[in-house]
Amino acid sequence: MKLFNEKIFNPYWVVGFVDGEGCFSVGVYKNQTLRLGYQVQLEFSITQHKRDHDLLLQFIEFFGCGYVASDGPLKFKYLVRDLSDLNRVIIPFFQSYPLRTVKQLDFNSFASVATMMNDKKHLTEQGLLDIQQIKGCMNRNRIFESPNK
């Protein structure tokens, strides 16, 4: 079974586009209705100016999941937050077609949190702490060694 519709986009083009415009993020939000008082939410997104709204809609067709939502007056986002869609489509796609930039490190962290959630570790105090630590080292918070060292 194909995880994506190759008639919409070439998968290598998608990888390049996501390398430049995509984001893999882990959110940890207060939620007093949960036992630990926190909720973990994974999100894969691609943000574009509103003039490229139709392009974002094609990602829904390509991946067969997700949705497009407004992200302010001038932007829209293609979003996938459903853990089953992330596990079934998004993570396997980027495992088969790896990213080419340092964004691959964020994807690796994202996928490891998904595995922890599949194993219900996010429902334990230690698991939640581990996820918060991973989250704290992703995206703009990632620290790189200087190449001159």
From TrEMBL:
Please name the gene that encodes this protein.
orf149
| Record SUPFAM superfamilies | Homing endonucleases (SSF55608)
Superkingdom to which the source organism belongs: Eukaryota
Describe the location of the Homing endonuclease LAGLIDADG domain by residue ranges. Answer: 15-113
Q: Name one GO cellular component term.
A: mitochondrion
Recorded protein name is: Homing endonuclease LAGLIDADG domain-containing protein
Keyword Amino-acid biosynthesis: yes or no? no
Upper classification of the organism: Eukaryota, Fungi, Fungi incertae sedis, Mucoromycota, Glomeromycotina
Presence of keyword Mitochondrion: yes
The alphabetical list of record keywords is: Mitochondrion
User: Could you tell me one molecular function GO term of this UniProt entry?
Assistant: endonuclease activity
Q: Which InterPro entries match?
A: Homing_endonucl, LAGLIDADG_dom, LAGLIDADG_Endonuclease
